[in-house]
Write a structure and sequence with these properties.
By secondary structure, this protein is of the alpha/beta class. It has 14 helices and 19 strands. The strands form four sheets. Strands 1, 2, 3, 4, 5, 17, 18 and 19 form an eight-stranded mixed β-sheet that branches. Strands 6, 7, 8, 9 and 12 form a five-stranded parallel β-sheet that branches. Helix 8 (311-316) links the parallel strand 15 and strand 16.
Length: 479
């Protein structure tokens, strides 16, 4: 069994003691962590591969608990008209994507995450989940598998109305059809059967309806007079989702906004709330809804800026909360360190520049162990502890913006970025070393992504949304 020892590093294991180990070491046997501690105390064995990590920092693999597949190939499209963005890109996803598109996006998104030290990424198929063709999920996961990354594929029923029109591109020709709610669930089940637990457990599937209450606005806060009572479709949606999740023993993920939580809680038997689900956004939720989340043990994930999300109030009630990217479109990225820094900056502004909201150590927890707990896998990943899976990231700290060599947690959160990631191990395998990735040809992968993005734009008729006015026109606009 292969053993690797990372020596002479500063190690931040994010363990229960929250240690910072100067001149530390991590020993890995197979796909599990064997020892973590001061270098002098970590006993290597003859035949161990030794990696010298002087002037380097070792942390757990970063975890992005909510992101969208497809985003990497539509970046910047319609970014200047954000109120209409979903109305433009969602139909495009439903009528202009091919199976090849989803594989190419898997290559590009996987590379971006890997190079930024993200070892586990959630990928929702489309901006609104599309499950009518399970091969979309299969192709996306195939790209992550080739790179050795962990991926949680999120697939499930789209929001109302049902049925929904979709277009399949077969043999280069569009074939339009109408998909019922039952057919969406059948497609999600097929993806679960094919993917969940594959690639030695690195690929998982979570059942992901678009929102927990489909009759409400799927992307915004619902006022009390809009969120009054569950409809029969709401109850059917929750019941069928719960039944499928129980059948395969899988976790759930969904979006929620003010009104959703209070309304969902009316269905005590099948509400999409509880310790087996994490909810993204939770904008504008009320104190009563915070209480419901706390009482049900529901996990929450948050993408900055998200200014109306009551982050502090939720955490004060003991709700586990993690930071996520929310994908890369129209103007985001998969760099969790930069995303965490944005979260911290927004909270400082909202909280009258009180630096206790949030200290760097807590921010690091929110993209490692808190994110792992939100996904229900904190017993496997999220910290560097003996017996856990060997997912770790080595950052090169011998750089101008990371000097001087002190207060490593502060430097990590305040100054470091994904570009500082040097080496990445996932499940005990070195998937990037000295910034080099050998599992795939990066040039070929990016070229494939470029081709599929261009073809997608043509099929969707989105060329008009690619217009860049240039500096001259922008200057005249604001002069």
């Amino acid at each position: 069994m292969i053993s690797t020892v990372f020596r002479h590093a500063t190690v931040i294991p994010v363990d229960p003691e929250r240690r910072i180990i100067e001149d530390g070491a991590v020993r890995v046997i197979g796909n599990r962590i064997d020892q973590v501690g001061p270098d002098a105390d970590v006993a290597g064995q003859p035949g161990d591969r030794v990696i010298d990590c002087r002037r380097k920092l070792i942390i757990p693999g970063l975890i992005d608990a909510h992101g969208h597949a497809g985003h990497c190939l539509i970046r910047s499209l319609a970014s200047d008209i954000s109120p209409a963005w979903m109305k433009i890109v969602t139909p495009a996803y439903y009528h202009a994507t091919t199976r090849e598109f989803w594989y190419a996006d898997g290559l590009v998104s996987g590379l971006e995450r890997l190079r930024a030290g993200v070892t586990t990424g959630v990928s929702i198929i489309s901006s609104m989940p599309r499950s009518d063709d399970p091969q979309f999920a299969v192709n996306h996961a195939r790209a992550y598998s080739q790179m050795g990354l962990r991926e949680i594929i999120c697939t499930g029923p789209a929001g109302m109305p049902w049925p929904r029109d979709v277009t399949r591109w077969e043999d280069g020709s569009p074939r339009r059809r109408s998909i019922s709610f039952a057919e969406m669930m059948e497609g999600a089940e097929a993806a679960i059967q094919t993917l969940d637990g594959s690639d030695d457990g690195r690929i998982r599937v979570y059942l992901t309806p678009f929102t927990i209450v489909p009759s409400l606005d799927p992307s915004n806060i619902s006022a009390p007079d809009q969120a009054v009572t569950l409809t029969p479709d709401d109850r059917m949606h929750a019941r069928v989702t719960r039944e499928l999740a129980r059948k395969y023993g899988i976790r759930l993920h969904s979006d929620a906004f003010a009104g959703h939580i209070r309304l969902a809680f009316q269905d005590k038997e099948n509400a999409l709330l509880g310790p087996d689900i994490h909810l993204q956004h939770c904008w504008g939720i009320s104190p009563a809804e915070i209480d419901i989340l706390a009482e049900t043990g529901t996990q929450v994930t948050h993408a900055p800026p998200g200014r109306s999300t009551p982050v502090i109030e939720m955490m004060a009630r003991g709700i586990n909360l993690a930071i996520t990217t929310d994908g890369t479109a129209p103007s985001r990225h998969f760099d969790m360190l930069q995303t965490a820094r944005l979260f911290q900056s927004v909270q400082h502004v909202l909280r009258n520049h009180d630096r206790f909201f949030f200290p760097p150590g807590k921010v690091l927890e929110m993209i490692t162990i808190d994110a792992a707990n939100a996904l229900g896998i904190g017993h496997e990943i999220g910290s560097l502890e003996p017996g856990k899976k060997a997912d770790l990231v080595v950052l090169d700290m011998a750089q101008p913006h990371l000097t001087p060599d002190w207060m490593p947690v502060h430097r990590l959160i305040h100054q470091a970025s994904g570009a500082d990631v040097d080496t990445v191990m996932v499940d005990g395998r070195l998937v990037m070393e000295n910034r080099k990735i050998t599992a795939i040809d990066i040039g070929d992968a990016l070229a494939q992504g470029q081709r599929e993005a261009a073809a997608f734009v043509e099929r969707a008729g989105l060329r008009a949304h690619m217009h860049d006015p240039g500096w001259g026109q922008l200057y005249r606009t604001f002069a």
